[in-house]
TrEMBL record:
One Gene Ontology cellular component: plasma membrane
Organism listed in the record: Pontiella sulfatireligans
Gene assigned in the entry: srpC_1
Keywords: Cell membrane, Membrane, Transmembrane, Transmembrane helix
Localization per Swiss-Prot or TrEMBL: Cell membrane
Topology versus the membrane: Multi-pass membrane protein
Top-level taxon in the UniProt lineage: Bacteria
Protein family (similarity comment): Belongs to the chromate ion transporter (CHR) (TC 2.A.51) family.
Pfam families documented for this protein: Chromate_transp
The protein, known as: Putative chromate transport protein
InterPro entries, A to Z: CHR_Transporter, Chromate_transpt
Length: 172
């Protein structure tokens, strides 16, 4: 099976079943990348940092970077299209049907059931990434400071990315 077909299939599946936005996709994506041996966990974490630092949704950015890493420009195009296509299809279906029925209790129950699962997926991705990214007490401190600044004071992620880059230059 060609690498482009493997990539399209993997990213289409990720895009189809990864509810909850970009960060929820990271857990699925990390498992797929590791299972297929496309890159090391350290490289994957580097791509997360780059994806977070570049404009656009993190899931699309990650798909593009992983696709490029594995199969060049054709891989980037295949992975990006594949991860985005399910969302486009689902949004069109939602626009046609779900919002018409949104106020119904059964639909509300589905959304209430999905919310904790999304939190779990994001927490699992954070745990897996944290095990690789937090390499010493400085990295741990930067992580904790970023969490506090965002959670308590709503500091812009742009400021945190710039500050973390400066901390990286100073301490690493």
């Amino acid at each position: 099976m060609s690498i482009l077909f493997q990539m399209f299939s993997a990213f289409f599946t990720i895009g189809l079943f990864a509810f909850g936005g970009g960060y929820a996709v990271l857990s699925f994506l990390q498992q797929e990348v590791e299972r297929r041996g496309w890159m090391t966990t350290e490289r994957f974490v580097d791509f997360i940092a780059i994806s977070q630092s570049t404009p656009g949704p993190i899931a699309i950015n990650m798909a593009t970077f992983v696709g490029y890493e594995v199969a060049g420009v054709p891989g980037a195009l295949a992975a990006t299209l594949a991860v985005a296509l399910p969302g486009i299809i689902l949004i069109m279906i939602f626009a046609l049907f779900v919002f018409h029925f949104y106020e119904r209790p059964a639909v509300q129950a589905v959304f209430l059931g999905l919310r904790p699962a999304v939190v779990g997926l994001v927490a699992a991705a954070a745990w897996q990434i944290g095990k690789v990214a937090v390499v010493n007490w400085v990295a741990g401190g930067v992580s904790i400071v970023c969490i506090l600044l965002i959670a308590k004071w709503k500091v812009s992620p742009v400021i945190l990315v710039i500050g973390s880059a400066i901390a990286g230059i100073l301490f690493f």
